[in-house]
Specification:
By secondary structure, the chain is an alpha+beta fold. It folds into three domains: about 100 residues, Alpha-Beta Plaits; about 140 residues, Alpha-Beta Plaits (2-Layer Sandwich), CATH 3.30.70.20; about 90 residues, Alpha-Beta Plaits (2-Layer Sandwich). Helix content is about 15%, strand content about 25%. The protein has a five-stranded antiparallel sheet with strand order 1-2-3-6-7. The longest helix has 8 residues. The protein is elongated. About 30% of the residues are buried. The model has no long low-confidence stretch (mean pLDDT about 90).
Length: about 350
């Protein structure tokens, strides 16, 4: 007996449920996780998935879900969940995700970090387009790296504040006075934060009244200063949220010590039709990898393409092609990084993704 599927929407998700006498199937789609690649729509054997107006959505012109699922067509086969590289789709059979079932195929992608090699430079966190990387770093106090003394002769000091303005470490502060009819002075004191001071002598040189004396012990006594070691005095860790990561490999490309390795889901290229492109920017807004850019001329009159792609950080997901209103972009995939395709119907459907 066929049981009709029920569709529910809540909190940016779509859920299709089919309760049978033997089997319960639940298909979930998460709008926040979805990047609008359209792979689910391309692979659906019954045409149950329709993409939304992605260009307008990503540019912020309208608020709408990135796709819709027609519950009257959906057969809950799970092909979309298997094909989604970004885990925005998930099919559960009797409470178990098909991602955990070996008979279901999977498009593989991954990211690995060698924490022992990582130098906590924070560059991967800065460049990640999905904010999937967080670097925690704790440094020893600055005062452990410097030795010296500083004194201010307050009988000579006129509280002009020139030293404070020059101080590169912002270690000198003028303390405001009450400045009223009984206490006229705008400042009542000057203090030095010796934890921040690096005894560089800039204030001493800048003081027009010779009120400051600085003695730096760092150079003659440099061997007394312990060099901080990574993962001893300098501590921390790098954390990667694989649910947010889109495997673009920005981090891998810029890592100065090759501590990150990314496995991408597809091989191929992104083709751009220069004549058709109207430089609307929809593809740039939609790209989850920040792989597309409007090239800027370095000199006047320089001729550049309307739009350029960095193939090193493109994952060939196709979000840009679905967002483009003039079909100026085309993804040519030559290989899918996947496992588990055995059934002929499934194999045929996945081969549709190769263009």
């Amino acid at each position: 007996m066929t049981v009709d599927a029920k569709k529910e929407r809540y909190n940016g998700t779509i859920q299709i449920v089919r309760d049978g006498t033997v089997e319960n199937r639940v298909l979930n789609w998460n709008d926040n996780q979805c990047v609008g690649c359209g792979i689910c729509s391309d692979i659906c054997p019954v045409g149950a998935i329709e993409m939304g107006p992605l260009g307008a959505i990503f540019k912020g012109d309208i608020e709408a879900p990135k796709l819709d699922i027609d519950d009257t067509k959906c057969v809950l086969c799970g092909m979309c969940a298997s094909a989604c590289p970004f885990n925005a789709m998930d099919l559960k059979i009797n409470g178990t995700s098909t991602k955990e079932l070996p008979q279901y195929p999977k498009i593989n992608r991954d990211i690995t970090l060698n924490q022992d090699v990582c130098v906590l430079c924070e560059q991967c966190e800065i460049v990640c387009p999905q904010c999937a990387i967080e670097v925690e770093r704790e440094l020893p106090e600055r005062k452990t790296m410097v030795l010296g003394e500083i004194t201010i002769n307050k009988e000579i000091c006129v509280l002009c504040g020139i030293c404070a303005e020059y101080c590169p470490a912002d270690a000198i502060e003028l303390i405001p006075g009450k400045m009223n009819a009984l206490e006229l002075n705008p400042y009542k004191d000057i203090v030095v934060d010796t934890d921040a001071c690096v005894f560089c002598k800039v204030c001493e040189k800048a003081c027009p009244h010779n009120a400051i004396e600085v003695i730096c012990y760092k150079c003659p006594l440099a061997n007394r200063i312990k060099k901080p070691e990574l993962y001893k005095e300098i501590t921390g860790k790098t954390t990667i949220n694989k649910n947010l990561c889109v495997s673009c490999s920005w981090c891998e490309n810029i890592c100065p010590v090759n501590a990150i390795v990314v496995e991408k889901p597809f091989e191929g290229e992104l083709l751009i039709d220069e004549a058709a492109c109207n430089a609307c920017g929809a593809c740039i807004a939609a790209c989850p990898c920040n792989a597309l850019v409007f090239p800027q001329p370095e000199e006047q009159g320089q001729k550049l393409p309307k739009i350029a792609v960095n193939k090193n950080v493109c994952v060939l997901c196709g979000a840009c092609t679905h967002a483009c209103p003039v079909n100026a972009l085309e993804v040519k995939r030559t290989k899918i990084n996947m496992t588990g395709v055995t059934a002929p119907a499934w194999k045929e459907s996945f081969e549709k993704l190769l263009k």
